[in-house]
Write a structure and sequence with these properties.
BirA Bifunctional Protein, domain 2; 5-stranded mixed beta barrel; alpha+beta; 670 residues; OB fold (Dihydrolipoamide Acetyltransferase, E2P)
Length: 670
């Protein structure tokens, strides 16, 4: 739960950072981030009397820049007057995605440094754009949604580097005189159809009719046309009359014609209204009867077919309020986007990620079923630890201490003697005080356990699973993966062909014992980020050096045989060296660890000794221990973090983008 508002902190955020009351209150509930913002502004010499325009740009840099180095670099360019608008600031953020640039001339060119768009030029462009509409249509658009007109101006190349506060002010100045002479229209209410009767057919003859082809009741629109999903439009012959339902994803209203990109849960298609219709906003839900037309120029994205729907009859199902245009914008901060995650999910990118995630889960299940494994559902409320006490979420369970599970592994082990090889796909929880792009407090855990196997069998099972799942998810949703991560597709190849992808893992993975990994890091000047020195045997290779190491290798890595002192108590020891574990981490280029697994201790006496070393009470694990008393066998398994795998596959910025509603330190809403 977020902390209560701190009045003193709110006052500083308003006075120094220049936030309004609401945003200052919102940021104050995230004390660490609020303090970081104030420290950043202090480092730039900002005081309560500093220019508010500079404060706006600096706060945008604080929220959008990926790290402190790029943040400071952008702030320097704000301070020296090179970056003067939000457009230039956003361009600077994009130009520093890979770090502080070395080519300053190229950076300045990309950010429009030195380009000045005068008020006279702004006014001229606005007049040209307004002249494209009749005064009546301009008034209708202005009354309904002035933000839409501003949005059209943002698409003009010559206004790319204009100050849009000036653009908006000039628009407010120029539009009212143009529309002043246009009379207000008060449309007469349509009579309600008789009970039980269909609505009268709409008029189509006059395209200037303000309710062209519009039915009063959306339930009357279909009239025998085939109900069709938008994903089916690509294969529907030209001239076919179809009935579709969906949401207005993008809207462009003109005087006597409107273009709407319609979205349903399966895809997108452009819809043409060849007459004057009541202007509606993005996300309005619609029912439409239309004729399919071939139109190669219609496709605006990889998800839209080269077809159009030409409307015969239509109706609004649910209108969308005009404030939809202002809830999130291109300038919205990451925190704002997460606060409005329910709106973000309506975007094609976020929705595509969720669809790939769904397909990935399906492919994991299909892989395990193909291996004749059974799915089980272990409890997520537990009273034993699995991965160490420091990351347990504690809770009161009817007066007893309990925890949210870190892993279902111990329970999976109990099932292999009766049910067989098993798997589960459930949430796990880690109370790690980390806000990195790789950490979540709640994540989806794909876990499996295999009986009567060797260490080599375990490694082979993991390799087989990753390769098989990747191939199948590409066959199922390769088009969506291409939409999200186009650079990984070999040009000219079919995105649903597994061989078309550069990231496709192939067997065997690179095998790297922990001891060799330490040598590899030290030989390549990859240092321990905690000490700033070369690694010593027994030290953990943390996220950043781990990724650097994998980048050197350039392929999936099976990092193996970690020292027992570094790993959990239950991990089996290596044959011939009791100081090592038969353990494995699967490391992927660009993201690091996605799988952790091991053989499990299956000897009762050995397990009791492990409890003693860890200071754990074995009586709490009696149900786990007795698996070793009654017919134990060699066995092992693994856990895979689904969100990290999606980050790698889709080239996402963060594991937070791979969740429906992410949970991490400081966020447990909405």
């Amino acid at each position: 739960m977020a902390a209560a508002p701190d009045a003193a902190l709110i006052a500083k955020l308003k006075d120094i950072v220049g936030l309004d009351d609401k945003n200052a209150k919102d940021l104050s509930t995230k004390a660490d981030r609020a303090t970081a913002a104030l420290d950043f502004f202090a480092a730039q010499g900002i005081t309560s009397t500093s220019d508010r325009g500079v404060k706006v740009l600096l706060f945008s840099a604080f929220t959008k820049a990926k790290d402190n180095a790029t943040r400071d670099f952008i702030a320097l360019n704000v301070a020296n007057g090179k970056l003067k608008s939000t457009q230039q600031l956003d361009a600077a953020v994009r130009a520093t995605e890979k770090g502080v640039p070395t080519d300053l001339a190229a950076f300045e060119k990309a950010c429009g440094v030195g380009i000045v768009v005068t008020d006279t030029q702004i006014a001229a462009h606005i007049r040209t754009e307004l002249a494209k509409q009749t005064p009546a249509s301009l008034k209708a658009a202005w009354v309904k949604n002035p933000g839409q007109i501003l949005g059209q101006l943002k698409k003009i190349e010559d206004l790319k580097w204009a100050d849009f506060t000036v653009v908006k002010a000039k628009l407010d100045e120029l539009v009212p005189p143009i529309i002043a002479a246009v009379p207000d229209e008060v449309p007469a209410a349509a009579p309600a159809p008789p009970t039980g009767a269909a609505a009268a057919p709409p008029k189509h003859a006059d395209p200037s009719d303000s309710n062209w082809a519009m039915a009063a009741d959306f339930r009357t629109v279909q009239k025998g046309a085939k109900k069709t999903k938008l994903s089916e439009i690509a294969a529907t012959p030209e001239g076919t009359e179809v009935f579709v339902q969906g949401w207005a994803h993008r809207v462009r209203h003109q005087a006597r014609i409107s273009f709407v990109v319609l979205r349903d849960v399966t895809g997108f298609v452009q819809v043409v209204f060849a007459g004057a219709i009541p202007p509606f906003h993005r996300e309005t839900s619609l029912a439409i009867r239309a004729v399919v037309k071939n139109e190669p120029k219609a496709a605006a994205s990889a998800l839209q077919p080269p077809k159009e729907l030409h409307v015969v009859e239509w109706a609004m199902i649910g209108p969308s309020d005009g404030d939809i245009e202002n809830i999130i914008t291109a300038e919205s901060s990451p925190d704002k986007l997460l606060d409005q995650r329910h709106i973000v999910l309506r975007g094609d990118r976020a929705a595509s990620v969720m669809k790939v995630r769904s397909a990935l889960l399906r492919c994991f299940r299909e892989h395990f079923w193909k291996k004749e494994m059974e799915e089980v559902a272990p409890p997520t409320l537990v009273q034993t630890q699995c991965e160490g006490g420091s990351t347990l979420f504690k809770m009161d369970y009817y007066g007893e201490e309990a925890y949210l599970t870190q892993s279902s592994q111990l329970y999976l082990e109990t099932a292999i003697t009766s049910i067989g090889d098993v798997f589960c796909i459930l949430p796990s929880y880690r109370a790690e005080r980390s806000k990195t792009k790789r950490h979540l407090s709640e994540f989806t855990h794909v876990e499996a356990e295999y009986a009567n196997i060797t260490y080599e069998d375990l490694l082979a099972n993991i390799e087989d699973m990753i390769v098989d799942v990747f191939e199948n998810v590409v066959r199922r949703v390769g088009d969506l993966i291409h939409h999200l991560n186009p650079d990984q597709l070999i040009p000219g190849k079919n995105p649903k062909d597994p061989s078309a992808w550069k990231f496709m893992p192939t067997k065997p993975f690179y095998r790297l014992p922990y001891a060799e990994a330490i040598k590899l890091c030290n030989a390549n000047n990859i240092v321990n980020t905690d000490t700033g020195k070369p690694f010593e045997y027994g030290e953990d290779i943390s996220d950043k050096p781990e990724r650097e190491m994998v980048a050197l290798i350039g392929r999936p890595v099976l990092m193996m045989q970690f020292p027992a002192s570094m790993k959990s108590f239950y991990m089996g020891r290596s044959e011939g060296d009791n100081t090592l574990t038969d353990s494995v981490d699967v490391l992927m280029p660009g993201v690091g660890e996605i799988v952790g697994g091991s053989m499990r201790m299956w000897d009762y006496a050995q397990l009791m000794s492990a409890y003693a070393r860890e200071g754990l009470d074995p009586s709490k694990y009696y149900w786990y221990n007795e698996q070793r008393k009654y017919g134990s066998v060699p066995h092992g398994g693994f856990g895979l973090g689904l969100e990290r795998l999606l980050v790698w596959m889709l080239n996402l910025d963060s594991v937070k983008d791979a969740c429906l509603f992410p949970r991490y330190m400081g966020r447990c809403q909405p």
